[in-house]
Write a structure and sequence with these properties.
about 100 residues, mainly alpha
Length: about 100
């Protein structure tokens, strides 16, 4: 999830906040961001396969898609609240919800 968050925020989340706030509050930009998430699924699935030693492509892609969506929504929520909540805390809470996925 750290790599996926970095995809949205770069090395400096605070510097990315104004851009992400605009995206979070503008439906057309938010939609465009979601369109750009699909290409992240395959590399994330590959990374998951390496980390978990799992081989089922369906489960790996489904889990990667869930991680991608969860991370994107977490970053958009953070930006939509003007960064008032800790991005690290939000990401940690979101990751904790994935426990049932066997990660």
């Amino acid at each position: 999830m750290t790599a996926l968050v970095a995809h949205h925020t770069g090395d400096a989340p605070a510097a990315a906040l104004p851009r992400l706030t605009l995206v979070a509050r503008t439906p057309s930009l938010r939609s465009r961001l979601w369109q750009r998430q699909e290409p992240l699924i395959s590399p994330t699935a590959t990374d998951l396969a390496l980390r978990t030693h799992r081989t089922d492509p369906h489960i790996l892609r489904a889990t990667a898609a869930a991680l991608t969506a969860l991370t994107t929504e977490t970053v958009l929520h953070w930006a939509g609240t003007d960064g008032t909540e800790s991005l690290r805390t939000l990401t940690g809470e979101a990751a904790a919800r994935l426990g049932g996925m066997g990660l």
